[in-house]
Automatic annotation (TrEMBL):
Top-level taxon: Bacteria
Domain Peptidase M50: 30-99, 111-148
Transmembrane segments: 12-39, 81-101, 113-132, 153-174, 180-197
Protein name: Sporulation factor SpoIVFB
Species assigned in the record: Aureibacillus halotolerans
Stated family: Belongs to the peptidase M50B family.
Membrane protein topology class: Multi-pass membrane protein
Amino acid sequence: MIKNSFSLRVHPLLWLMAFTAVATGYFRELLIIFFLVLLHEGGHLLAAKWFGWRVSKVELFPFGGVLHTNQYGNAPLHQELLVALMGPLQHVWLLCLPYSFLQSTFHMDANLYQFWMSCNLSMLLFNLLPLFPLDGGRVLYALVSFILSYQRSFFVSFVCSCLTGGLFVLLLWLKSLHSLNIWCIAVFIVFTHWELWKKREYAFIQFLIERMATTALPVHPLRSSSEESIRFLLRRLHRGKKARVTFGESVLWDHDIIAAYYVNGCIHCNVGDVQEVLRNIHESGYNTPETWRNAK
């Protein structure tokens, strides 16, 4: 497979919406939705490729899409924000297109134009909700992780997302909205949060592995002690920042500590034990970022 290639998957929710639209005669409306979803996700993809992210899969949903990348929280903050916002920004300029242009170019009548405007506005506002896996949830996660550690920012963002999702489902219930598509999206949101929570430890491990191969990051000083557990220290690492750990007169880098934890199985060691462990690892060269980058 080509290095920069990726797979494109249409989620069953979008297929369900497409089947419903065709069965009820809303074919032109279906084309508009597909066009907006593709353009929305194209914005994310363009930004991700611009920053050199490795994209493995693009998944299309009725409300936009999900970009699956290799970035597990180690990209700079501005990259995270721009990649997340480039999708909703597509709807901003689409909303500014005049009716006369759409009428002459795409033969839109007044009713179809209203549908066009409604879809654009709905996708824009819905995707900005602080809710996973929407763009607003990713923006919230990136902003919170700028202040808190990776683990704490995940927990705070996850709780905010659950509250937002709960309010969204409650609003649907109170408004007595019986649209099958809307309730399918609500079920999908619940399932997504369950999957996200279940895979949180796997995502954290991927975050640490990516950190070992990442060097071009701002330095973030961390104070520690020789008695602090390595496992606890790793959970204090920040996204998008290279940790320089000091304890007493000694200095360690985060990739050294991660190497001791994973390569040498130093699971129950304290920070003070790492330097002794690293003497053996240094001789093999396993702890260097270049080695891990080449091995991936």
